[in-house]
Each structure stands twice: as structure tokens, then as C-alpha cells.
Protein: histidine kinase
Organism: Paenibacillus allorhizosphaerae
Amino acid sequence: MLRRGSFKHVLLNERVYKRFSIALLLLLALGTIVFAAERVFWPDKAYPRAENGIIDLSDWNWQKDGTLPLNGEWSFSWQQLQQSEADQASEQSQLPAQTIKVPGSWNGTVVDGVPLSGEGYATYRLKIMLPEGEDVLALRVPAVSTSYKLWVNGKAIASAGLLGTTEESAVPQFAPEVAVAPTLHSAMDIVIEVANFSHQRGGLRQPIELGTAKDIIRAKEMAVGFDMLLIGCLLIMGLYHLGLFAVRTKEWSMLYFGLFCLLFSIRMTLLGEIVITKAIPGFNWTLEINLEYLSAALSLPLFILFFSSLYPEESARFMNAAFCIVTVGYSIVIAVLPTLIFTQALVSLQLVVVAAIVYVMSIAVFACIRKREGSGILLISCLVLGTSIVNDMLYAHQLVATTDRMSAFGLLIFIFSQAAMLSIKLSRAFVSVEKLSTELTELNNGLNEKIIERTYDLEQANKALKWSNDELSRMETSRSHLLSNISHDLGTPMTAIQCYIEAILDRMVDTEEQRERYLRVIHSKVVGMDRLIEDLFQLSQLEARQVAFKKEPVTTDLLIERLFARYELDARGAGIAYTLTVFRNGEKDEQFSSVEVDAERLHQAYSNLIFNAIKFTPSGGSIAVEMHDNGSEMLVSVSDSGSGIRPEDLPYVFDRFYTSNKARNDSGGGKGLGLSISKEIVEYHGGRIWVDRTEEQCGTVICFTIPTQTKQAVSKAGIYQTVGDGR
């Protein structure tokens, strides 16, 4: 039954979870800020930079220092392309060139006194002085605006789209690549031909990385993995929120956020590593750039509507309508105009995005001041997301030297915050349901208590009858087992005795010596039958719990010493090394525990294990006894180096009358009762017994445990060993 304390506990857990979520968001936000600050203030802190088209890496250690961006001044030849390997290899193909900063577009670069626009074609060149070594190097080339061909030491190793000197001959394509670079022993000459007639900005807008092939491929796989992680999170969150909206259509925030996640998941396939080109090779570039801009424009009103539906009193309808009209209008421009034109209007969209960030932040701040549900978490996540988006916009305009992937991290933090807020909301709904259920339960408690009172006596009587019935069943089962076992194991020796006596009576025995031998056989059979009957009777009493155990407290170390010492002479007489090792698992000065046992009964159980080990261990072998006292139980293991137990016999070793020697009734075979008796004695003490491991011709380890009592003062502690020389 539910109680008030139970849902108070749930409320407490909810508050703890909320605080944990806020703390984790703050930690993630701090990490993002530190990462951004590092990239802003120390963008190339440890990397050599290119100067006048040359970068010196002769002191670079690829194994220790890893990959590096080839940033700095590259040689730049405007309106010139080299179309063949012969041209690249020719010394005469060295073009007169100026320098240009990479990464960065060529827009605004002054050539012959005229600033360049985004349209045109050019050749970039960089000479790299390499360190000594035979490392296989590779280049990680990002998306280039908008087509390129990469040459290294006169060999073409990568390209995207088709180069051309006119808009009709050039074919744009964004395709980040990893290319293995053919290297000379001391230098590498990189030439990149770039053409752009389709985008606002042209050139090498993102850094090119150089490193060993292993490191470059790993960095590429990590980037693709992060993109796939973010896309998967967006898809799952989008579909999940749409499912919630389908169940509860009043929650419009679920619809807006679900559509936002699905739309942004499409956008993420078009950014970074552009995974859509991996899934669909040859994906149309115009469609790709249209989807990229449309997803950015249409996701903005969905995001604003999501916040407005969460906090309607803190938002303004006319502002929501204004943002929707502007972004829908921009989307129409994207769908109608060519890419070269609408990409030039990107600044206007970015200004709208900045205004939307300010508006959303104001909603979150007012909601937090008024202590709305989940406002604190959303305020932190919106601050991180807004900061990361502004960083990406500044990077696109070459105003900061950070990275254009910051918004991906911010978006991941925002998705996590929304998941945390949703879990808190569902938790509160569950608490509300639990509270109503508790109240209903309390209304029925009166009737339930009366029913419990009237049925209590019946339950007690039923338990007493059940216990009596179980005892009678146990005794009956024990009796039937005893009778069946006696008839089974007494039949064969009785038949043998009868045959020997008839032989004597019929005067078939001629000599006194033969008659005496027959009488000795009869005597051994009678003795065996007497021992068998005694064992059966004792086992039946143990199973029926009719044996009186005289338990006395004794420390574990003293008990094992007494058990061990009684059988030293037997082991020595069989020529077997017999050793004891005692372990106290705990603090160095901690004392041995105490157990309450019937020492004689435990001797009987222990003797069965030892005599079995002696029986199946040849002379010159060993029997090792170990006792572990861990404070909660006493564990004893008996390990021998004998013949072991066959795998097919292992499940039955503790069954009565089971023995690997099929001739149980001969003079040398066992009766199969010893381990059964040991099992009953150990279990009567509250312990357990099992075969720990065994292997044919390599020995057997049998363990049993006895639970300990509270700790008592004893004088011994630690680990010690007693050895009996069995030779």
C-alpha cells in the first residue's frame, strides 16, 4: 500500500534530480565556455604557422604532437589554374603569387588594386619542410567553396566537384575528404586549385589538417561519430516528442520541439562532415545548400513557438508573428532565387537570429524570475546555445578564429536540458497520480484493517497446519527412503551370505581353511550391513530433523585445528602430505570470529571429506585444508591431488547411494552415503557444501561454509600455516 512517506520520498528524489541536472548543465556550459575561450584567445597556441607560402615542420614530432592545421600565409595566384600533372611537376609552372591568409575566403583580398568578390578561381600553394622519418602522412580537407583539386608533389590526390573558369564549366560540391599524401624525404609541395561561381564566399574557409594517416583517420571518424550522435539524439527526441503530442494534443510545446528536432537533424546532415553525401553519393549541391539555409530559417520560428507555448505569459504574440513572417519570407527567397544571390543575404538572416536569441533569453529570464517550472534549466541551456550560435556566425564572417562546430555542442546541451525537464515534468505527474492513489487507499484502509483482523487468526492456524503437514511429509519421506534403501542395499549381501551358508550346510566346503575363509566373508558382509543400516538410520534422522545437535560456541581457528588434528595420523599412514592454512580476511589486528557448532557432528562431516580424499589420493600425493574467516562466514576447503571426479558424476556426488564405483556392495566400494551425511550436517548448521572444482587425475576441491556469530575476543589473528609431513 502507498503511504504519504512514499510520495514525499519521490518529491525529495525529484528535487535531488533537478539539482543534479542543473549542476551537470552548469558543468557542460563551463566546459563549452572554456573550450571557446581557448579557441578565441589561443587559436594557434602551439602550432607553427605558414609564412610567405612556407611552413617549417622540421622540429615537429608526429607521434608526440599529433596533427596540426596548416594555417597562415599561403601563396595565392588569382585567375590561374594548372590542369595537368606535367604542369604541376614543371619548374616553369611556378606562378608569380601573392600571399593570402588560410583559413579564410578570398573575398576582399586586393589583387592588382581591386578587392575580389566571391566568384572566380585561383591556385593556393604551400611548401612544407618535413621532419626526418618515414611516417605516412595524410591531409584532412574540409568543404571548399565550392570546387577544388588537391595536388601534392605533383600528384592529384583529392577533388570535389569540377574545376572551371566559368559558371557553366564549374560544378560545385561540398565533400570533406581524407587524402594520403605522397611525400619526399624533406619537403611536401601542396597545390590546391579552387573555383567558385555558386556561393557568396570562395576559397579555403576552413583549416586543412596534416598528420599521420592514423591520426587523421581517427580525427575524421571521431567527427563523423559526433555528427551521427547528434543526428541520432535529434531524431529520437523529435519522434519522442511527436509521440507525446499524439497522445496528448494539448501539449503544443511537444509538437514544436519535435518538429524543431527533426528539422535540425536534417540540417546536421548538411554541416560538419556532411554525412548526407556519404549516405547519398553525388547528392545535388544546389539542393544541399537550399536545405541547409531552409532548415536554419524554418527552425527559428519553431524554436520561438516552443518557448512561447512553454511560457505564454512571458512571451508576446506580435513578436512571435513577426519572427514567423520574416523567416517564412526568407524561406521563399531561398526557394526562388539562385544560390549565389540568397547566400549573399545570409547577414540579414543572422541578424534575425540574433534578435530571436535576445527575445528567447528575455522569455527565459522572466520565467526564471517568476519561478516557472523548468525555467532555470532552460535559461542555462539557452545561454550556452545562444553563445555557441553567435560564435559560429562570427566565425563565418572571419571575426573569430575558433571553430564553426560550437553550435553543435550547444545544441547537444540544450537537448539534454529538455530531456531533463521532460523527466522532471513526468516525475511530477507520477507523483500527482501516486498522491491520488494514496488518498484512495486511505479511504479503503478501514475495510482492509477489519478484513486483516478477521483473517489473521485463520492465517495463523493455516500456518500451523502447514508446518505440521510439512513435518509429517518430511518424516514419511524419510521413512520411505529408509525402507527403499534398506531393501536395495541389503538384498545383494543377504543373497551372498545365503549362498555361502548353503555351501557350508551342503558340505561343499572340503577343508577347514576354505570354511574359515567363507565365514570371514560372511562376517565382513554382516559388518558392512550393520554399518550401512547405521548410516541409513542416521541419514534419515538428519533429513527428518530428529537429531539433537549440541551446539557450543568456538572460534573458527580453534575449530579447524581440532578438525584437522584428528586425521593427521591417517594421512601420514597413507603416505600423503596433509597441510592446513588459516586466513583471517580483514584488518591486520582483527580477531577470529566465533561459530556455534556441534563439534562431533562436524567431525563426522569433515571426516567423510578427508577419508574420501585419502581414498582417492595415491601415496606421495597431498591434501591441503584451508580455512577463510571473512567475518560473516567460515569457509573450509579440502583440496587433494587424487584422481578427481568424472564430469558425468559431478551433479550427483551429494545424492544418497551415488558412487562412481558401480560395484557398491563389494568390499572395496563405498556406499555413497558419506557426502549425503556431510551435506545434511552442514546444512543443519545453516551452511552449504559444494564441489568447487575437479579435474580427472588432477584432484578435487570440496568447500563448505558455516555462518559466524558476533565477533568475540580471541587471541589469534592474521595468517598462519600448520604442516604435517605425510612422508
Q: What stands out?
A: The chain has a mean pLDDT of 80.
